[in-house]
Amino acid sequence: MEFNIAKISDMIIGYAPKVIGAILVLIIGFWIANRIAGAAKRAMEKQGMDVSLRGFLGSLVSVALKIMVLLAAAGMFGIETTSFVAVFGALAFAIGMALQGSLGHFASGVLLLVFKPYKVGDLVTIGGGQTGTVEEIQIFNTVLKTLDNKRIIVPNGVVTSNVITNISGQEVIGVELTYGIDYGDDIDKARETILKVGRECPYILDDPAQGVVVAELGDSSVNLATRPFCKSEHYWDTYFYMQENVKKEFDKAGLNFPFPQVDMHQK
Length: 267
Hints:
Largest sheet: 5 strands, antiparallel
Structural class: alpha+beta
Number of helices: 7
């Protein structure tokens, strides 16, 4: 028993410095890796590199440096780095086969940066219906910020396998709006009311000019469609301004918004 205790004590004494050293290497190494990745992003920013590419390359540099830190920590235990790299390569291949989806997301991220269907700051609809402003394009994911301040993370593979709608990437955008009026209401009066609100809206552009057309003769309403154009960053401002003020002006003009109702006749 004394021999075993002595042997265990010797092992603890022998390995304790290595364990402590490895932990310190991991802590300090990860800290340095994050600092270097941040410095790389700032350097790319000074060079005027695209903000989407900065985020992607910064994330890639961070991952690569942390792998190097893990290799250095393994070396603290006396593991041959050459053999460790070979084993790591084999494991990476096996893991890669098991995580083909993740590698697909990585490849999709590269495609997004090459072909640039959107960039950071664009308002988009991606991933089968997720709408928001692009905050970051990462190695595996695209990060969106929604109008109600939610953070949505969409895998890049899901993005490229679905339709991508870049709402604001063209700088100028048309805002699709439809307003229904009663069949007994004056169409010309409703048209002029909508155009009046458009002229008073501070976000709507004069060119191209706003128009109002009869889009549909519905079951219970005449539907008027309009498409005012504005700067991409003012899309929601324009949308909400028109929705509120058209309702107010319709009320003043005696124009009615139809709503479902049932008339009952009793004999």
